[in-house]
């Protein structure tokens, strides 16, 4: 199966029902349909109001996730954004955003892991490896309340800190 074809399967996975995936024969390339569906459900519940049902964003206020170079960052980095939020000037697909994404520590570890898995499969050609235990670990990095991560630099500093522990 060529790369292009497998990417198309993944794009389909972003929108289609798990049962349908089995019929069109993409299932061998995807995580268990249950996890994917849970990730999509959690995404729609917690992220879509700002980033759009298809990850298309609402420029110039909310940046897209589909096609975003930020999805090239590690699973841990994406989980850190969800847990701690993001603010300050950032660039996504050639456009500058100066927004504020609130920290979302109220989400369950499993929901965050599922959302990262969903984003990876819907909008990248990489597999996610993050599980709930890893999210629980990241939750302890900055105990207590703190302001959202400050732009890409703030995020990379946080990632470095996590790796140095
Ligand atoms: C209340 C609106 C809001 C919600 C809800 C929200 N975000 Fe964001 N998100 C933003 C804003 C605004 C930015 C840009 C922040 C900035 O300009 O510094 C952002 C940036 C991002 C980025 C980095 C930039 C990009 O577009 O790739 C990622 C990744 C991201 N959000 C993922 C998520 C995920 C996953 C969820 C759900 C768990 C979520 N966001 C929920 C508003 C939101």
Key words describing this protein structure:
165 residues; mainly alpha; Cytochrome Bc1 Complex, Chain D, domain 2; 3-stranded mixed sheet; 8 helices; 3 strands; 10% strand; disordered N terminus; binds heme C
Describe this structure in words.
The protein has 165 residues and is mostly helical. It has one domain: Cytochrome c-like domain (Cytochrome Bc1 Complex, Chain D, domain 2). The protein has helices at residues 3-15, 18-24, 33-46, 48-51, 75-84, 109-123, 132-139, 151-164; strands at 86-92, 95-101, 149-150. Strands 2-1-3 form a three-stranded mixed β-sheet, covered by helices on one side. A hairpin with a 2-residue loop joins β1 (86-92) and β2 (95-101). α6 packs across α7 (132-139). The chain is globular, with a radius of gyration of 16 Å. The termini are far apart. 28% of the residues are buried. Residues 1-9 and 16-28 have low confidence and may be disordered. The structure holds heme C (HEC). Heme C binds next to α4, α5, β1 and β2.
Structural class: mainly alpha
Mean of all residue-level pLDDT scores? 86
Low-confidence stretches: 1-9, 16-28
CATH homolog superfamily: Cytochrome c-like domain
What is the name of the CATH architecture? Orthogonal Bundle
Q: What is the CA-CA span between the terminal residues?
A: 41 Å
* Gyration radius, in Å: 16 Å
- Secondary-structure element series: HHHHHEEHHEH
CATH class designation: Mainly Alpha
The CATH topology is given as Cytochrome Bc1 Complex, Chain D, domain 2
Strand order of the largest sheet: 2-1-3
State which percent range the strand residues make up: 5-15%
């Amino acid at each position: 199966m060529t790369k292009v074809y497998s990417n198309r399967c993944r794009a389909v996975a972003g929108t289609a029902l798990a049962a349908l995936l089995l019929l069109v024969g993409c299932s061998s390339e995807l995580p268990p349909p249950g996890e994917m569906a849970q990730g999509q459900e959690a995404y729609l519940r917690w992220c879509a109001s700002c980033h759009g049902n298809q990850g298309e964003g609402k420029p110039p206020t909310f940046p897209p996730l589909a096609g975003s170079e930020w999805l090239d960052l590690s699973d841990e980095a994406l989980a850190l954004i969800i847990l701690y939020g993001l603010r300050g000037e950032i660039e996504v697909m050639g456009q500058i955003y100066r927004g504020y994404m609130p920290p979302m520590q109220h989400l369950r570890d499993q929901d965050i892991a599922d959302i990262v898995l969903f984003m990876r499969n819907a909008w990248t050609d990489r597999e996610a490896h993050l599980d709930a235990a890893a999210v629980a670990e990241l939750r302890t990095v900055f105990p207590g309340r703190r302001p959202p991560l400050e732009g890409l630099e703030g995020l990379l500093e946080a990632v470095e800190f996590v790796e140095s522990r």
